[in-house]
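User: Could you go from structure to sequence for me? I need the amino acid at each position, not a summary. Structure tokens:
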């Protein structure tokens, strides 16, 4: 009887740890530059509600930039028909994931001092986790 109780306790403990201690990051979006298929941006949400943005520039393992954003660098906007999630990487740069009319868009924008204007690039979305986007 003690062996059965011990076995049941171990099973519940194992399932409890695996459910509550999940440390996996959730991939929200993967997209590539419209003029360069090797430039790929991926955004993950961490279990701590931070965001990891990784931009890969080639197939080489070490050819990437990565930054970690805090929850306060995310802004969610709604209007009558659209939802926008803005991830501000600096005072002059941002990523936007937008949903309107049953379509998603992914845009990177930054302020160019040389052009004295905002430059934006709409990336081609390869994958989007709709459930993760809805929970942002």
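Assistant: Here is the amino acid at each position, in order:
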């Amino acid at each position: 009887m003690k062996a059965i109780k011990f076995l049941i306790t171990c099973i519940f403990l194992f399932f409890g740890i695996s459910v509550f201690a999940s440390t996996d990051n959730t991939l929200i979006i993967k997209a590539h530059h419209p003029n360069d298929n090797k430039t790929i941006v991926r955004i993950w949400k961490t279990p701590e509600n931070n965001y990891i943005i990784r931009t890969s520039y080639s197939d080489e393992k070490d050819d990437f930039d990565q930054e970690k954003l805090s929850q306060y660098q995310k802004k969610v906007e709604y209007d009558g028909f659209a939802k926008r999630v803005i991830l501000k990487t600096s005072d002059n740069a941002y990523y936007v994931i937008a949903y309107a009319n049953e379509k998603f868009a992914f845009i990177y924008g930054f302020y160019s001092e040389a052009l004295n204007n905002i430059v934006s690039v709409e990336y081609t979305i390869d994958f989007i986790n709709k459930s993760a986007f809805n929970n942002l």
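One structural detail worth keeping in mind: The first strand starts at residue 26 and ends at 33.
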